[in-house]
């Protein structure tokens, strides 16, 4: 048989575009054919919103699941949705919001498939209240390379269920799943923005907001130079004002071409941070906000990932356990601000206690920090190595779905459950992330 033509596929961070044997099944039968016993090593792919190499399988087969996107059932009284794996969060919102339901939790983009949300066990601004996406999955069906079709839930094949939640796409092809939705009183949120001057104030605001039962909390933080540690704390609760207005008008702006990478440098980011902080500090801070700009501010800029230029960018996202969060965050902030490398997007959030059923879920009780850095080669890797040490010493972990470079030892110490995943992994699934972090042991 002739070698397949390889299609270049980029991840969201756009570091490299390895060739893949891209297969797009439209039916479950076609999907099972593509992963049949004896097929080349494969990996499922959703909307490609993961930043690093968790959804890449260079030189191998990539199953594009976005056409497996049918709704199967929606119980409007109980708020239970059954759908194929490639249905996106946006599709779900369009269907269920007019009936008073919403996703139980959502990442910062709605352009994510249901299965992608499960495979990385994604979290949202309400993690401290509701836990991760995987906490709300009732059951799933998995197609495996041995030809089997396996249903799993906490009662049926529970180990496979736990391994699949946060399982990085390695346990099989999720074909469909059932999800418990959350009741909401409308499409709007009462939201508030509060400036803070340093990390101490951030932690105080996070604690107060939790005590005052704010459901959605997150903060933007400045990490540049002497301003490092100041930021804007955002919190919101669902409102009964405004009605169930969908208002999903699609993209508002498109990045028309790839600008030179140097446009996002320390000086321009410093200027942006100063302006953003000042505007947010003196503008009215309490608003009724539609869920779309509240949860998905970046979705209004189509292909914003081009802004980092030809060499792409990395996101470093880590979580530090609660007992040492203050000291470790201080240390991280110090080395980041002293590095001279500016991050355009810095997000900090305190996670809650609700455990995920998944063996490899990223969140833990503690504080989560995420930063984007343009790919400037060795300089940024040196900074990452220093950050890795702080994270490892604190017994924290790095988020695989944002990662394209974490060393194997950091992965294994951060995720002791990795051996349980390795034991249940589908032997014919291959991902670039897994071969880097688990190697031949995986
Ligand atoms: C702007 C932006 C904001 C974000 N905000 C957050 C956030 O707040 N919180 C958060 O947790 N994440 C966040 N993310 C990350 C994003 O939620 C995850 O990367 C998510 O997994 C992407 O889903 P996807 O459909 O694009 O899947 P892909 O990125 O294509 O794949 C992700 C994983 O899912 C697996 N997979 C896909 N389909 C299947 C299937 N049918 N069966 C088995 N495995 C499958 C893949 O193999 C891969 O391992 C954000 C990403 C962006 C771009």
Question: Which structural class is indicated by helix and strand composition?
Answer: alpha+beta
Individual helix count: 13
Describe the strand arrangement of the main beta sheet, using strand numbers.
16-12-14-13-19-20-18-21
Find the count of extended strands (DSSP E, 2+ residues): 21
Largest sheet entry: 8 strands, antiparallel
Using the alpha-carbon principal axes, give the shape.
globular
Assess the beta-strand content as a share of residues: 15-25%
Catalogue the unreliable spans: none
Mean pLDDT: 93
Helix content: 25-40%
List strands and helices in order, with pairings.
Layout: E1 7-8, E2 19-23, H1 28-34, E3 42-45, E4 61-64, E5 71-75, E6 80-84, H2 89-96, E7 101-102, H3 114-119, H4 127-130, E8 137-143, E9 149-153, H5 158-164, E10 173-180, E11 182-183, E12 188-196, H6 199-211, E13 216-221, E14 231-238, E15 253-254, H7 266-282, E16 286-290, H8 291-295, E17 301-302, E18 313-321, H9 325-339, E19 346-351, E20 366-374, H10 378-393, E21 397-398, H11 408-414, H12 418-424, H13 432-437
Parallel strand pairs: 2-4, 3-4, 15-17
Antiparallel strand pairs: 1-2, 5-6, 6-10, 7-11, 8-9, 8-10, 12-14, 12-16, 13-14, 13-19, 18-20, 18-21, 19-20
Helix pairs in contact: 9-10
The chain binds flavin-adenine dinucleotide.
Describe this structure in words.
The chain is an alpha+beta fold. The protein has 13 helices and 21 strands. The site of flavin-adenine dinucleotide has 32 residues, from strand 3, helix 3 and strand 10.
């Amino acid at each position: 048989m002739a070698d397949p033509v390889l299609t270049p596929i980029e991840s969201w961070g756009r570091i490299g575009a390895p060739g893949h044997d891209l297969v797009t099944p439209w039916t479950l039968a076609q999907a099972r054919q593509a992963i049949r016993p004896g097929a080349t090593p494969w990996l499922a792919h959703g909307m490609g919103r993961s930043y690093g190499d968790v959804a890449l399988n260079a030189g191998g087969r990539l199953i594009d699941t976005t056409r497996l996107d049918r709704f199967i059932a929606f119980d409007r009284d109980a708020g239970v949705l059954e759908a194929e794996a490639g249905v996106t969060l946006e599709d779900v919102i369009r269907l269920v919001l007019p009936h008073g339901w919403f996703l139980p939790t959502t990442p910062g983009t709605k352009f994510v498939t249901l299965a992608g949300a499960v495979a990385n066990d994604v979290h949202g601004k309400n993690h401290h209240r509701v836990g991760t996406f995987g906490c709300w999955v009732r059951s799933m069906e998995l197609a495996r390379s041995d030809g089997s079709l396996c249903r799993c839930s906490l009662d049926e094949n529970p180990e496979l269920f736990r391994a699949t939640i946060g399982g990085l796409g390695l346990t099989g092809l999720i074909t469909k799943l059932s999800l418990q939705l959350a009741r909401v009183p409308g499409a709007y949120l009462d939201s508030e923005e509060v400036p803070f001057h340093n990390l101490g104030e951030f932690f105080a605001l996070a604690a107060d907001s939790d005590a005052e039962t704010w459901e959605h909390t997150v903060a933007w933080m400045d990490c540049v130079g002497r301003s490092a540690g100041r930021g804007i704390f955002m919190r919101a609760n669902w409102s009964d004002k405004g009605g169930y207005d969908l208002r999903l008008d699609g993209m508002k702006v498109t990045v028309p071409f790839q600008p030179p990478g140097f446009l996002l440098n320390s000086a321009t980011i410093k200027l942006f941070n100063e302006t953003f902080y000042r505007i947010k500090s003196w503008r009215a801070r309490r608003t009724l906000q539609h869920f779309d700009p509240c949860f998905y501010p970046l979705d209004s800029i189509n292909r914003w990932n081009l802004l980092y230029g030809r060499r792409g960018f990395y996101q470093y996202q880590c979580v530090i356990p609660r007992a040492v969060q203050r000291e470790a965050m201080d240390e991280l902030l110090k080395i980041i601000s002293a590095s001279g490398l500016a991050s355009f997007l810095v997000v900090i959030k305190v996670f809650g206690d609700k455990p995920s059923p998944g063996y490899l879920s990223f969140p833990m009780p503690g504080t989560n920090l995420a930063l984007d850095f343009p790919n400037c080669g060795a300089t940024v890797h040196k900074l990452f190595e220093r950050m890795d040490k702080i994270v490892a010493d604190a017994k924290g972990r790095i988020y695989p779905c944002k990662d394209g470079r974490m060393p194997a030892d950091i992965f294994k110490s951060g995720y002791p459950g990795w051996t349980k995943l390795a034991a249940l992994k589908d032997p014919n699934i291959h991902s670039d992330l897994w071969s880097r972090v688990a190697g031949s042991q995986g």
